TrEMBL record:
GO molecular function, one term: ABC-type nickel transporter activity
Coiled coil: none
Cell location: Cell membrane
Any GO BP: peptide transport
A Pfam cross-reference name: oligo_HPY
Subunit-structure text: The complex is composed of two ATP-binding proteins (NikD and NikE), two transmembrane proteins (NikB and NikC) and a solute-binding protein (NikA).
GO CC, alphabetical: plasma membrane
Domain ABC transporter: 6-273
Protein name: Nickel import system ATP-binding protein NikD
Membrane topology according to the record: Peripheral membrane protein
Protein source organism: Haloferax elongans ATCC BAA-1513
EC number: 7.2.2.11
Keywords from the UniProt entry: ATP-binding, Cell membrane, Ion transport, Membrane, Nucleotide-binding, Translocase, Transport
Length: 363
């Protein structure tokens, strides 16, 4: 089997605060393949964003204290700054919840996308010329090529009338169009991995569904690997191939999205799903039953869910919980819960599956 595009192994990221050391990511491991959408699902504070930022080495002021992040055979945790800059600017693109973080308010949307295209083209050419040992000549037509490509990218991201809209400024765009423009910028460098942290959370349901559908097209047409971070089970269910359930900075369960959401093996995942049934408001943040998330200060040497789990035994509080593989890539970090425990909610319906014309409100 070939190597995955991204392999995260035992990642640990910590922040030093006046309250003590925050163990934001506490030994997470997972992979993303080319042409695959992997979701990271978890409640607020479970370590999703820090995981994403650590992959791109944007964890500052935190520190990666252990583990490896291998992207296309390069370990990013030990890579030098120039390697990181090159990878971030071309092979890995990141998109966040708030498009205004990326867009420059005083430059037109078309110019910003064209600039991203031009930077990428120049870097590619520069690398070739460096290799050949010849100087770079400025190409007059480069700008108009980049502009043309920008319009193509806007069109691919379903921005209507891209020619006329390319001269508009970000404030003239709706939230949905701004996020599409950010995606066009992210794709200008032809990345092989897109990391999207809650990219549709601030958008209305219809726009959200359109953009998530586009993610699946990008996966299929460009063989793009996508890491999609969300607190919304509906978003994960309708978009992802595999899901990683994160809690207290640790992976509780991972596997094919259909298996994990219909046959959850970890008591935490079960609690998350039953809670999402009872509170079926679209877009509502996931909460796991009673109690509150663990305090990440001080770190967890054992299962972070132990204090809220009906199956917990002293073993669950003693040391790290080993991960067991159940079948076809379905893994669970729990040694105590019976695997055939009844589904927690008698009226739980199967969640919508990626290809089933999913309606996210139905779980
Ligand atoms: N700069 C920081 N300094 C100290 N602690 C931090 C910092 N950034 C994140 N943390 C802590 O790390 C933990 C994980 O945070 P993270 O932002 O990854 O959560 P999340 O799962 O993305 O939550 P949300 O759904 O709210 O975005 C939290 O306890 C958070 O307080
Ligand atoms: Ni976050």
């Amino acid at each position: 089997m070939s190597d995955p595009l991204l392999r995260v192994e035992d990642l640990q990221t910590q922040y030093h605060t006046t309250r003590g050391t925050v163990h934001a990511v506490d030994g997470a491991s997972f992979t993303v393949d080319r042409g695959e959408i992997v979701g990271i699902l978890g409640e607020s504070g479970s370590g999703k964003s820090v995981t994403a930022r650590s992959i791109c080495r944007l964890e500052d002021p935190g520190k990666i204290v252990d583990g490896a992040v291998t992207f296309d055979r390069t370990d990013l945790t030990t890579a030098d700054e120039s390697t990181l800059r090159r990878i971030r600017g071309s092979d890995i693109s990141m998109v966040f919840q708030d498009p205004t973080e990326t867009l420059n308010p005083v430059s037109s949307v078309g110019e910003q996308i064209a600039e991203a295209v031009r930077i990428h083209d120049t870097e590619e050419r520069q690398r070739l010329l460096d290799y050949l040992g010849v100087p770079l000549f400025r190409n007059r037509s480069a700008w108009s090529d980049a502009h043309e490509r920008a319009i193509e990218l806007m069109d691919q991201m379903d921005i209507p009338n891209p020619e006329s809209r390319s001269s508009a400024y970000p404030h003239e765009f709706s939230g949905g169009l701004r996020q599409r423009a950010v995606l066009a910028i992210a794709l200008a460098s032809e990345p092989s991995l897109l990391i999207a942290d809650e990219p549709t959370t601030a958008l209305d349901t219809t726009t959200q569904a359109d953009i998530l559908r586009r993610f699946r097209t990008l996966r299929d047409e460009r063989d793009l690997g996508i890491l999609l971070i969300s607190h919304d089970i509906g978003v994960i269910a309708q978009t992802c191939d595999r899901v990683v359930v994160l809690y207290g900075g640790q992976v509780m369960e991972s596997g094919p999205v259909e298996t994990v959401l219909t046959e959850p093996a970890h008591p935490y995942t079960r609690a998350l799903l039953s809670c999402s049934v009872r509170n079926s408001e679209p877009g509502e943040r996931v909460r796991s039953a009673d109690g509150s998330p663990p305090d990440p200060v001080g770190g967890h040497v054992a299962c972070p869910f132990a204090d809220r789990c009906q199956y917990a035994t002293p073993t669950c509080r003693e040391g790290r919980i080993p991960t067991t593989e159940l079948d076809d890539g379905h893994r669970v970090a729990c040694v105590e819960a019976p695997l055939d425990a009844p589904a927690e909610s008698p009226h739980r319906r199967a969640p919508p599956m990626p290809d089933g014309g999913a309606d996210r409100d139905s779980i």
